[in-house]
From TrEMBL:
<comment type="similarity">
    <text>Belongs to the type-B carboxylesterase/lipase family.</text>
</comment>
<feature type="domain" description="Carboxylesterase type B">
    <location>
        <begin position="2"/>
        <end position="62"/>
    </location>
</feature>
<protein>
    <recommendedName>
        <fullName>Carboxylesterase type B domain-containing protein</fullName>
    </recommendedName>
</protein>
<dbReference type="Pfam" id="PF00135">
    <property type="entry name" value="COesterase"/>
</dbReference>
<keyword id="KW-0719">Serine esterase</keyword>
<dbReference type="InterPro" id="IPR019819">
    <property type="entry name" value="Carboxylesterase_B_CS"/>
</dbReference>
<dbReference type="InterPro" id="IPR029058">
    <property type="entry name" value="AB_hydrolase_fold"/>
</dbReference>
<keyword id="KW-0378">Hydrolase</keyword>
<dbReference type="InterPro" id="IPR002018">
    <property type="entry name" value="CarbesteraseB"/>
</dbReference>
<dbReference type="InterPro" id="IPR050654">
    <property type="entry name" value="AChE-related_enzymes"/>
</dbReference>
<dbReference type="GO" id="GO:0052689">
    <property type="term" value="F:carboxylic ester hydrolase activity"/>
</dbReference>
């Protein structure tokens, strides 16, 4: 449950569980912000903003992909 509305200043709730693979093929809404801070972004007019914006994008390599060590 997103921390909006009556949940805004409450303790966090555990997220709903799902079965199988979660569909994460699209980005979530952006946090509400001043539009002039996005002035150079060509997609600013198509962006979806919401208070429900507490998401984390995690990118990982394909299994078996050769990885170089970082020193």
């Amino acid at each position: 449950m997103p921390p909006v509305g009556y949940l805004r200043f409450q303790m966090p709730k555990e997220p709903a569980k799902w079965r199988g693979v979660m569909n994460a093929t699209q980005f979530s809404a952006l946090c509400v912000q001043r539009m002039d801070s996005l002035a150079t972004d060509p997609e600013r007019h198509t962006a979806h903003f919401s208070e429900d914006c507490l998401y984390l994008n995690v990118f990982s390599p394909t299994p078996g992909e050769y990885l170089k060590f970082v020193k």
